[in-house]
Design brief:
This protein is of the alpha+beta class. It is about 55% helix and about 15% strand. The strands form two sheets. It has a three-stranded antiparallel β-sheet with strand order 1-2-3. Helix 1 crosses helix 2.
Amino acid sequence: MDNVGILEQRVSGLRVQLDTLRADERLFQRAAGLETQREKDHATKLDLEAELEAAKKALNDLRDKKSAAMQGTATAIAEKMGRVLPYGEARFSVDDDGTVFLGWDIPQHGVVSYGGLSGGQRVLFESALAYALTQQDRQNAVILIEGAELGPEIGLLLESVARANVDTQIIACTCHEVAAVSDGWTAVHVLEVAQ
């Protein structure tokens, strides 16, 4: 092989090496661009995580404020109910997660949730709740109580309402005879007429 052939082979080999090096250079440039993009993406991810944590904190703060506002209302309702309940205290609470509890702290029984109250206890409790939810400055407000479940305990309701001196007209209907009518109440008897 002559010198020209050897030189051509060397030039050809150098071209292959040069093409390989250029391909490697493009890969390195692409890798450097990918690394730069990865760093940008990582910085964006950190920013988004910080924003997410700030949003979570703001949401928790709003939940706490909502819970505090709801609890303030629940406490006011429970206090108003307590004015009319013949004994014990109303319990009304709202947890941080929004769970609501409504019940009655009955002496010698403890706290009973609304769902666990007997029929007569529900009449007493619902009467107090109706009173607490009635707009007090409203003219001619009326609460109607169906007290057949109460039996003789209707007197307890009448006494507690009279004691509270509520400025609301309350009509309590029962099929039971009331032993005594508290001040502020008028008893009306409806007689069944035989045909």
